[in-house]
Design goal:
Shape: globular
CATH architecture of the largest domain: 3-Layer(aba) Sandwich
Structural class: alpha/beta
CATH class of the largest domain: Alpha Beta
CATH superfamily of the largest domain: P-loop containing nucleotide triphosphate hydrolases
Order of helices and strands: EEEHEEHEHHHEHEHEEHEHEEHEHE
Strand order of the largest sheet: 6-7-8-3-9-10-15
Largest sheet: 7 strands, mixed
Amino acid sequence: MSELAVTTRGLRKTYRTAGRRIVAVESLDLEVPAGGVHGFLGPNGSGKTTTIRMLLGLIRPDEGGMTVFGTPVPKSLPDVVGRIGAIVEAPKFFWHFSGKRNLDLLARAIGVDPANVDVVLHDVGLADRAGSAVRTYSLGMRQRLAIAATLLKDPDLLIFDEPTNGLDPAGIREVRSTMRGLADRGKTVLVSSHILAEVQQIADTVSIVAKGRLVAQGRVDDLVAGSGSMAVRVGVADRDTASHVLRDKGWTVSDEGSDLVVTGGDAAAVNEALAREGLYAHELSTDHANLEQVFLDLTETEPTAPTGRRAKR
């Protein structure tokens, strides 16, 4: 069995608010392989940030255990903290200082060789803007500067919580490319996100959570291929009527741009159902399943046990 960078077993965390107890994480068995990008995926409020904060010792679980590279945390976190770099909250920098100056100060504060600053700026693609004031950086550049800060210690595990929030498409692409590049250098990148389709482009493995519970885990290709789910994209003039017709067949129908996206029926069946009602598609194509569709399929059926690779107890 390959080395695991992160494991959790029976992890549970609750909060008390307005006189009632809210379960944020419930019986979570998580496995993050060492090396590559691991997507920790699920909608907002599904327990991703709570889990990450427990791993980093910022909050304590009610029940369960966790390890980072085989070391129990938070009990022995000091023994392994040097191997971890993380961005959990919005990064803070001196805006009137240059990116390099900010990292020079940080390197001095944490006792890191100053020579590492130029290396990490190059690693995240900011070498040509190292001398510019941070206030002139785009949001995506500031996020890459934050990643550079986490790299100063040359950690083996990098944890990023929703790193592309608020970024424009160019910024998302830059951060995504940076994360993939780190994984290709042998780092383990654990990235949480509620945008499943975005992470699918760079992740090797994923864990998908909903309402604090694990619903699927394993290699991306295996989960998508094993879902058996396909969507039919339909272009039709009378979308409202077509939507009612297709829903009456028991299929799931959603609007996506100018098209309807139908799951639950194949293209031939969808076309036939429309034609029987005098509706004719001007576009009909089949989309292969993606992580988002896998997630929807799993959560709609509310499974009691996760699919994909399970941890052995």
